[in-house]
Amino acid sequence: MAHEPPAGTDRPGTNWAGNVHFGAARIVRPRTVDELRLAVRGTQRLRALGTAHSFSPIADTTGDLVSVADMPPRVEIAADRTTVTVSAGMRHGELATRLHADGLALHNLASLPHISVAGAVATGTHGSGVRNGNLATAVTALEMVTADGELVTLSRAVDPGRFRGGVVALGCLGVVTSLTLRVEPTYDIAQTVYEDLPFGHVATDLDAILSAGYSVSLFTTWGDDVVDHVWVKCRVDDAAADLGPIWMDARRATREWHPIGRMSPAACTPQLGVPGPWHERLPHFRLDHTPSSGSELQTEYLVPRRFGVEALHAVHALRARISPLLQVSEIRTVAADDLWLSPAFGVDCLCVHFTWVDDAAAVLPVVAALDAALAPFEPRPHWGKVFTMAPQAVQARYPRLADFQALRHELDPTNRCGNPLVDRYLGV
Predict the structure, then answer these.
(1) Distance (Å, rounded) from C-alpha 285 to C-alpha 188?
(2) Which of 29, 308, 345, 428 is close enough to 350 for a disulfide, judged by CB 3.0 to 4.6 Å?
(3) Distance, CA of 380 to CA of 343 (rounded, Å)
(4) H helices present in 221-277, as ranges
(5) How far apart are CA 30 and CA 46, in angstroms?
(6) Above 80 in pLDDT, residue 196?
């Protein structure tokens, strides 16, 4: 007979954006690893829940949602100061603040510092930079409670095969309790925005644009033949040349911007080339601000960088359908990795992101049109965003899928951690 764990519970609601209504009976909030193990053993179906920033139903379940946010915060820096072990429910922005105070840094951060470390890692979430892997590439080991309630550790050094399958695992193997991340000495970043980059330069100088800083993002509404803004984030210790007031026929901004041009930049990290700590420049948004109301939908495709120009032309050809439903689109890069379910597995990627209006009925047909237009360029969708690609098309993009399926069967033989989305796209 299952024992009810001594843990807090909530009634589930919706994800951050409100487009996913969780079907779980409850959210269980264990306070210790032992309570988590009891919670896992005491339910027939479960999914790990982070900060609910995914726009796809990747975290949903008909069983229990399990949040580790109430477990004790943990930030343990190794004696050699090359790694840090952190609790899974900690938000990236909170971790970054702690690390910087100790003279350390991560290699990169996502646009939002509000997301949990484990959730960002599990879905392959990323920042930008031609040499920067996604956030999961910082992981050197992780601890999780598997579907049978056992506590296991996966380490790149000790068990590299299972590790590569278990880092970006979409919550299919159990509930992560802690992660060990690679760190480096802290560094400063200067963030400069350039306005009105002609689209012609994207076609002829894409690699130069994307390589202009440590992290580069292009923002456009696809309405005109210009990229509205290019956010160039340069490490101060790189001694990179000043791009100057005019670069690629774009003008250096003399005011701060929000990615969505009509919105106030108050929620955004400092710009205008003023140097500051890495964790206050790499994200687009400040930890102590809410970037938007969440009234939006998001889609993102990662395509091999070798197809970057052709893929952007394919999107550009659909601009008449895209622009009326779009709040903003962001173009970034992420370096290749060896994590089996990472959208950047084995290939350097161009990432094309869309922040839509909150109107699924109008948006989904355009997403389907994008699926078709990008199909020749081997796209992989971001697991936490809205996408309509057929399961067979997605599965064909992951050459280690069979290995992941074997690992999943080993650690969760009765599929307690599955749900309709992962079962459909990964197989059972």
Answers:
(1) 17
(2) 308
(3) 6
(4) none
(5) 13
(6) yes
